Amino acid sequence: MKTKLTTAGLVSALLLCAAPAHVLAHGDGFNDAVKIIEQFYHVKHQSIPLLARAGMTAARTAARIKGGEYKRLAEAGSVRVAFFEDQDFNSRGQIATFKASMQATFAGTWSPLVQTLAPRNEEQTYIYVRDAADKFHVLVVTIERHEATVVQATVAPDILAQLMKDPGEMGKALTEDATINDN
Amino acid sequence: MKNLFQTTGKIAPVLLLLLFGSALTARAQGPKLQMDQLDFLANKASETVDVKLDERLMQTTARFFSGKDDAEIKEVLKGIKGIYVKSFTFEKEGEYSQAEVDSVVSQLHGSTWSKILSVKSRKDGDNVEVYLNMVGEQITGLAVLSIEPREFTVVNIVGPIDLEKLSKLEGQFGVPDLGIEQDKTKKK
Known about the structure:
The complex is a heterodimer. Chain A is built from 6 helices and 5 strands; from the N terminus they run αααβαββββαα. By secondary structure, chain A is α+β, with helices and mostly antiparallel strands. Chain A has one domain (28-178). In chain A, strands 1-5-4-3-2 form a 5-stranded antiparallel beta sheet, with helices on both faces. In chain A, α1 (2-25) crosses α4 (95-106), α2 packs antiparallel against α4 and α3 crosses α6. Chain B has 5 helices and 8 strands; from the N terminus they run αβααβαβββββαβ. In chain B, the strands form 2 sheets. In chain B, strands 1-2-7-6-5-3 form a 6-stranded antiparallel beta sheet. Chain B has a two-stranded antiparallel ribbon with strand order 4-8. Chain B has one domain (2-182). Chains A and B meet through α4, β2 and α5 of A and β1 and α2 of B.
């Protein structure tokens, strides 16, 4: 009897542990990423207008990757951005746990493309991709010691193909592209 | 029953390891390596890079390499079903163990994998091992292990790939610059 109860308890605990990731996995990638960051690091994202980032050097980076004149990478109107600024992103030695949370959440719905971690500087980049009819949704999560950015954008396959040549620069290029001022 | 439960509890970790080992060995017959067991090294590494370009993504985007500059890369990528890279850089020596290396190497002992002996790295001191997965005369995959005191990198490419194609991929698609070149003075 005791054994049965212990087993039932273990199974229940496992199901309960698995539930949050499972529930999140059916949600929206952008909101899920924001939620994971907020829960893990106990931070809050800010709704900062894109125009506040007008001074960024997006054009140079994107143009270099594309090997020519600058052209927007993301489809018009497809960009979603969340900023976390002036906050403390300290994983306390558990950066791999955060990575595992990301993997568990997006498994099955998004394909992980690139993940880079530098625990000493608390720097992380995650790039996920999923089909969006004849285009792709790309989700980029960039975390540094005191700021983070979540970007989701729709890109055409030819743009994604070019970006895939240098996956390490893809996150930077898309994030800068998403936060550039059109004006 | 209680005794049985307690005994099972004690041997469970051993059984799990055996099962895990069996799973890795079983996968050794295929060109795609299991590398997720290395993920915990991210906590120790000063830098971790993890790239996964799967078949669907490769095939979907390969069609869009249509320009003049892309002709060569399109040819190299022809038939490639995946590029998987895990690279860990450490601040100090001895932060990863032989067990981690063995968890990958053990998968390369299957009958379809063979080590290329005539390969060396242009970089001084680099210990680079290259393995090919072959089915008959057909190359179906490649694995590169770069084992350094402060760096451990595994590159796994699934599909028809040879050293010449690999050298063209270095520095692109997440494949690091391994400095691999074929030593023409040695035979396989």
